[in-house]
Amino acid sequence: MKGYKKILVPLDGSEISEAILPEIEKLASAFGSTICLLYVVPLAIIPGSMEPIANYQTITEALTHEGEEYLRKMETRLKGKGFPVESHVQQGNEAQQILERCEREDIDLIAMSTHGRSGVRRWLLGSVAEKVIRHSTKPILLTRSANNS
Q: In terms of CB atoms within 10 Å, which end of the chain has fewer, N or C?
């Protein structure tokens, strides 16, 4: 059985994004998959302005460090359960970075939770999951969070 050799799991540090992990653990156990964790530090630009936020470099460095610490904890937790895990922190547009990581790493499945936004909130904030679904050539496992925050 071919299965999924590498499963990409984008996480943003929230419990909502982590809601996919129990399903991933089941799949990774069944197929002997490597779990590839990805944390994306979004670009810090003020909407309507081409100017980066003051102290952009400091903010980006702090968010990158926070993402690295978070993924280390998640990696330790998953490795403690016997899963092979890789972790990556990238900067940029979340959906674009997810899609680019898929191509670079030859990912077999993207697995992510959605925040479940709808209506105006979705229009204003966008949906990373929707953008990934629209542009991915890889299969996607998507779960909707019970928490609609």
A: N
Please give the model's pTM, rounded to 2 decimal places. 0.84
Q: Which residues have CB under 8 Å from 148's CB, separation 6+?
A: 115, 116, 117
- The tens place of each residue's pLDDT in the chain, 149 residues long, gives 478 999 999 999 989 899 999 999 999 999 999 999 999 998 765 555 555 566 667 888 888 999 999 999 999 999 999 999 999 999 999 999 999 999 998 899 999 988 655 544 444 445 788 889 889 999 999 887 665 44
**Is residue 63 one of the residues assigned to a domain?**
yes
- Assign residue 17 the CATH number of its domain: 3.40.50.620
Q: Let me know if residue 1 belongs to a domain.
A: no
- CA–CA separation, 122 and 130 (whole Å): 10
149 domain residue, yes or no: no
CA distances from residue 79 to 37, 64, 114 in whole angstroms, order as listed: 12, 22, 25
Return the closest-CA partner of residue 42 out of 9, 88, 87, 89: 89
Residues spanned by the domain of 132: 6-144
Structure tokens at 128: 């990373």
The count of domains in the chain is: 1
β-pair partners for 30: none
